[in-house]
Amino acid sequence: MSNVTSSAAYSLLGFLVVAVVSIKWLRVAQREHYIGGYVFRFAQRWYLSRDSNANITIAVLMVIAVVAAISRPNVALIVVPSLAITALLALISPIGLGYKGRSAKLKWTRRAKVLYGAVLAITALVSAAAVLIGLAAAMAAVYILITPVIVEAALWVTEPLERRLLDSFVAEAEKKLNAVNPRRVAITGSFGKTSTKFYLAQISAYSFSTLASPASFNNRGGLARAINENLVAGTEVFIAEMGAYRKGEIASLVGWIHPEIVAITAIGPVHLERFGSEDEILAAKSEITRGARCVVVNADDYRLQTLANQLEHDGTKVWLVSGSDISRDVCVLVDDDKRAVAYVKQRRIGSTATGVATSNLAVAVALALELGVSAEVIGKALESLTTPANRINIGSSESGVTVIDDTYNSNPAGARLALERLRELGEPGSKKVVVTPGMVEMGSRQYEENREFGTAIASVATDVVIVGRTNRKAIERGILADRSSIRSGTRIIECPTREEAVRWVKANLRVGDAVLYENDLPDHYG
């Protein structure tokens, strides 16, 4: 056995390279809520994307180098250069996925530190074993190549510890929630849940001391934190937004929060990649109805109408709401003055400025009524209703350009609504620009949804700035498929980052122009 190829120095080199390279994959793990399997999934996306020949080439070269190393583990002239090539390529790739990050920066939380420690421990054990069996150089090349897999292994190893710690945190929150004992409302849906929660919190505050879970704190840890840090004695209503990346998560939340009034805003292809089908999404979201006394559903979705029928058959009180059908219990329609008007049993109770998703506001109104807020008070609240940040917020830049900020949207319905607002804005003959990376987590439907989005953009915008490469081809083909876009000369601009897109907007738009920023993917998508 060669002393050269079995030297511990090669294992140390491999360990150090993994220690560095794993940081970028740790960033991906954190952004994906530490869910097992997603680090490897993103590694596949980055290296095997058809839109990135450079990363595919790097992946092939690394595999060839590793195969060469393990096929001739004792031949220094083969294994040492192979290790060097693998280490160098791993350090600089995948091209586009940085260590520091721009919009998805790694935060060295306790959990991140524990996960990183597990990565180092696993790598150290493998390195030591490689030295003992005399394959230090060859094995170093292998575990450098599979760094994303090592991070996945660390997630699996640390998961029991994290579960025990979270259980203790949740138990504390449950005890506090039961002690204060506010009325409990829960809201879920493929999209619209944050906006609905935001509307309801404003309306409810006119009659009750209200606490809504902040931002997008909609999982077990986030809701427990919201309660532990923000719930105080005297709180009369607690509004919990509930999200899910897999079946059983909402059931777990309901199991300790015990909401009496719940709502489902919509079912759609958001997170389709995680669930596999919209039927699975519906099943996961429907878990929120377990034990609820009253359920509010958006009847514009036929699947939710079917669910409502079953719930009523089982004796649950149901509110049917709509953003288009005035015959429903609650309906919100946009009138000729471009105001969103709320109707209860076809009686007008008030209105607010447009910019709201009508069905989301209808859900919020029904929830408020069920809580006991009067129709008169709701009408008053609507007059001063505001929309949540980054969701079709309309303002003006210093240069006089009208800006629609819809950067937190990532669903087809919301994107269509934002495009309609862009259509209405801007002066005659002005530029109307869409800046977007497209929509993600839609599984097999992602390409088609983004292609249709491109076609819709072409019917409104003079220019589209496509950020990144994730959905570039789909959006471009949708734009070019619309004959009207060819006649009108709709321009396509490609920018690798949002920062470059913003610079393009500042350099090319003037007073009277309008720009829609639709969605803003974190940079670990590319």
Describe the model.
By secondary structure, this protein is α/β, with parallel strands linked by helices. It folds into 3 domains: 8-162, no CATH class; 181-383, UDP-N-acetylmuramoyl-L-alanine:D-glutamate ligase, CATH 3.40.1190.10; 393-518, Mur ligase, C-terminal domain (Protein-Tyrosine Phosphatase, Chain A), CATH 3.90.190. 52% of the residues lie in helices and 14% in strands. It is built from 20 helices and 15 strands. The strands form 2 sheets. A 9-stranded mixed β-sheet has the order 2-3-1-4-5-6-7-8-9, sandwiched between helices. A 6-stranded mixed β-sheet has the order 10-11-15-12-13-14, with helices on both faces. Strand 10 (393-396) and strand 11 (402-406) form a beta hairpin. Helix 1 (8-31) packs antiparallel against helix 5 and helix 3 (53-71) packs antiparallel against helix 4. The two termini are 44 Å apart. The mean pLDDT is 90.
